[in-house]
Amino acid sequence: MSLFIPSAWAQAAPASEPNPLFTLVLFGGLFVFMYFVIIRPQQKRRKEQANLVAKLAKGDEVVTASGILGRITKIEGNFLVLEVSDKVELKFQREAIHAVLPKGTLKAL
User: Fold this and answer.
1) How far is it, in rounded angstroms, from Cα 7 to Cα 13?
2) Structural domain includes residue 9
3) Of the four, 5, 54, 62, 69, which is 20 to 30 A from 88 by CA?
4) How far apart are CA 21 and CA 35, in angstroms?
């Protein structure tokens, strides 16, 4: 017996392997949790945005993703023209529209 190294003691037998069924259930539960917390709400938002973009019409008052307010004066396929001020028109893609405002909002500002 050495002065600096203590004697080795026998260790208990190692615990058994975890049950593979438990591991599969754990991963399945994690996937279900991620689906309801991340995937499903994102799909819902994407569907709402697609409906909003599809229903755009001439004369709607909108807000773009960059925060520009304007009235739609012309729709040309995948693009639309916004009148943001007197004689100032800007062209945007349909997907750049963030929200449709109630009528008369631009006059109130």
Assistant:
1) 19
2) no
3) 54
4) 21
Q: Say yes or no: 40 and 87 in one domain.
A: no
Q: Residue 75's CB: how many other CB atoms inside 10 A?
A: 14
pTM above 0.85, yes or no: no
**What is the Cα–Cα distance from 82 to 89, expressed in whole angstroms?**
5
Here the tokens at position 86 are: 């007197």
Structure tokens at 23: 């591991």
Residue 1 lies in a domain: no
Please give the chain's pLDDT, 109 residues, in tens: 556 666 666 666 666 777 889 989 999 999 999 999 999 999 999 999 999 999 999 999 999 999 999 999 999 999 999 999 999 999 999 999 999 999 988 888 8
